[in-house]
Amino acid sequence: MKDIQEIKFYSGEACPLEMHKVRIVQRLNLLPIEDRVKAVNGAGNNTFLLQNKDTYLDMLTDSGVNAMSDLQLSAMMVADDSYAGSATYERLEEKLTELFGTKYFLPAHQGRACEHIFAKAYIKDGDVIPMNYHFTTTKAHIGLQGGKVLELYYPEALEVDSDHPFKGNMSPERLLETIAEYGVDRIPFVRMEAGTNLIGGQPFSLANLKEVYAICKANKIPLILDASLLADNLYFIKVREAEYRDVGIREITREVADNTDIIYFSARKLGHARGGGICTSDHDAYMRLRDLVPLFEGFLTYGGMSVREIEAITVGMEETMDYYMINQGPEFIKYMVDELKKRGIPVITPAGGLGCHLDAMRFLPHLPQSEYPAGALGSALFIAGGIRGMERGTISEEREADGSEHYSNMELLRLALPRRVFTLSQVNYAIDRITWLYENRDLVGGLKFTEEPKVLRFFVGRLAPVSDWQEKLVAKFKADFGESL
Ligand SMILES: *Cc1c(COP(=O)(O)O)cnc(C)c1O
Questions:
Q1: pTM value?
Q2: Of 21, 325, 397, 479, which has the maximum CB count within 10 A?
Q3: So what's the pLDDT on residue 485?
Q4: So which residues are the catalytic ones?
């Protein structure tokens, strides 16, 4: 018998089906459009600075906001609170050993804290770090240690409209060239990111990971896996990689782990809680990283996490082995992507994990990158529907050393679908508002910085519209809807 079965609909019109029911709910607000304009400008047109109370659909991120299960919540009540040697910590350590087969675990308060620790332990000035694609916090930590990121993706990774099933793959040819060019002494590790975040939550294949790992091993370079978005990547390996169609999630997880030296993750994503950590079987690596944990995070048996969260991660990791848990996110996202595509709206394909990504470069072709099309689209969509997305384009890049803009390869507005949080009717509402905005895209204008921090400017930077385009958008909305909701 197959370990998963497709659920068929008598009508023939299939839609994603939730294998859970909702037992705790939170009231939402949908502000009138006049108030949405005020809110977004109060936030400097930066969706990071919006208030939750002003937001109808919070699609900013999947970080720390995935729905927790009844078993996770109940486990939180039996957490064993102690500074050192808590049973709660041991349960997590054992669960990670069971799933990844790794011997050692170092806890940290979230994903970037793991990056801070291994960047400090491994990178010296002038090093280069090959990876499939960078993540914002990873690149910042590598840069702070004097290292440089080299992205060894295939060209299709940046093709917005593609049917490539594994856009997160690393090019083994380019890895070999990089090693030949820089030499192993300047490459402290290679990094593979599961569910490659910034190119649209796109997975790598297990075949590709194995090939990359073989090269790393032959050259004695450690391979570090960023497993923050592993759950989505596991799902895609199972449904897109023929060889693994009939292999269980648990077995796939183990095979991924067996083809890496060090695994780190943000438990704000993986495990549906809040926290993070580093797993390895390599004793030398463990010793190298270990001393930094009490210094920056907390003692070795909590690493800055609350014991309640640690319990929740343990249960969440086990639940991640359930196909009918990890399929929910990618299937909702696929539904949204398919519906937007049907309407001719530019969206990243194939559908990935984490969220649906609108291609702002094609959505707003009249805006130059110097006016931040993805940021402008984020502001416009909040005005159109109280929907809060995240700019993943030039605003999310850092300026060059000479102060000039570093234009991003892609200008994306990411609409995250925190797992098991939204209903299909809410997704349909988002599709409706995006469709309206697309039909009125000519009205959307650009943004300019009014306050620009030097590091990770996308978090707290403030911007303003370059013209009165927002007023025009509001007038059109009211003309079309006859109302302000
Ligand atoms: C979120 C994320 C991180 C950072 O994790 P935090 O817990 O937010 O610090 C690192 N890598 C990837 C791929 C992520 O998605």
A1: 0.94
A2: 325
A3: 83
A4: 83, 135-136, 226, 269, 392, 458
